[in-house]
Amino acid sequence: MSPFNRPRVTPPPEAFTVSGMRDLADRLRRLRARALEEEARHADLLAAVDPAHRLSARNLVHYLALRSVDVRRLQADLAWLGLSSLGRAEAHVLVSLDRVLGILTLALGESLPDYDGTAPVGFRQGKALVEFHADELLGPARPDRRVRIVVTIPSEAAHDRDLCGGLVAAGMDVARINCAHDDPTAWRRMIDNLRAAAATRGSELRILMDLAGSKLRIDDLGGKKSVRLHREDRLTVADPGRLDTLDPGDDVVATCPVAKVFDEVALGDPVWFDDGRIGGHTEALGEGWFRVRIDHAKPTGARLRPNKGLNLPLTRLDLPAFQEGDREALDFAADHADAIALSFVQDPEDVVRLHDALVARRRPEVGIVLKIETRSGFEHLPRLLLAAMRHADYGVMIARGDLAVEMGFERLAEVQEEILWVAEAAHAPTIWATQVLERLSKRGAPSRAEVTDAAMSGRAEAVMLNKGEFIVDAIQSLDDILTRMDAHQDKKTPLLRPLGISRDL
Q1: Which residue in 90, 185, 266, 387 is a FRET match for 11, CA 20 to 30 A apart?
Q2: Is residue 173 packed enough to be buried (19+ CB in 10 Å), middle (13-18) or exposed (0-12)?
Q3: pTM
């Protein structure tokens, strides 16, 4: 069919009538009332928040109320009238509803009601709060680049001052030290070298330290360096203390030292290894062991090595994010870091425990970053944020590695969008992490998809690069991409600067 013969899309006939506009106004008022009802219902949670974050907490509750119902038809009707469709209301929910309501009221020839003062933040204040919290947690933005660059620091930085200088000169704003590797002596040398490099250039550098947390790993493969697994193979996962009583037959045996895993796993639960490269389902289990039937691997097989990750996305594991083994790292980080990232956080009590630990060490000003990398962490994000709001500075890291395995790769794009929306409603800065320009960092040349992902990452307040041989090149490229995109996009809002190609006609 010729495009000129296609039927025209017409607005709903009621949209431009007086009764239609009154109906729209009523629907908006009901949404507004719902938001205030939710605020009243969660008064106890809001009262526990630090007073400095109370407005942000209220706005978060209002946003969750807005998103608890399907407003897509309402959005379409508002757009037909040329009004805001509420698609960018995250940081200022009530005032967004009030402005649209006000325009409809005036269009109907009615008087505006007296302002009741219930909207916690306005348009400018919501945006300003996100920027303020980002400055406090991650350091000030650069004049030509709003988004900060976070870099995972390699072990070599403990003794290579030139490397540290190169990272700072290339555009690194935050240095991330992973406490799952190295030791306090090496961490101290890294920080000294990094701060010296920043001081030489007159740059402000923030230090972020990751606590290792409760990541599950395969501990051993029966003394083997690796095993190749194919579809339909069986892999028995066992508690190391149960190996003497286990008869696995011809199965490959892997050990996992976390005993609680074997208490909670159920028949049919999905199991993933090595960041999703190998997967299957439990088909048998007993005291201290379970057997996995492999149904996801490359046609030629996939190699599994010791110390690789183990994910049980549908198994509810009550593992605290703050482990006993993290205490030495926490003692060090409390004295030397600007912020601490809490890995595998799942429960608000995890956040409270870290906050209390920092208070006990007389360092309550150290920021907290919630690493969202499990299904449970994602599902409990609103309560995790409210718990973090008891603290001074807080933020969210979208840790897409384990998160993709836990949620399913197909859902990752959807899930990271939801995290961005909810975090913005809480005025919490976000860090976009995992495999950003990974090929460039490790091999020296990016893929086309990586460049697009890096451009999209500018919707967060910071982007994290992992270490690699070409990490300096990756920082420089990311700096260029983010600087260019700053002229085109402000989070979700396109910025309509003049386009060079517009002069081609």
Answers
A1: 90
A2: buried
A3: 0.92
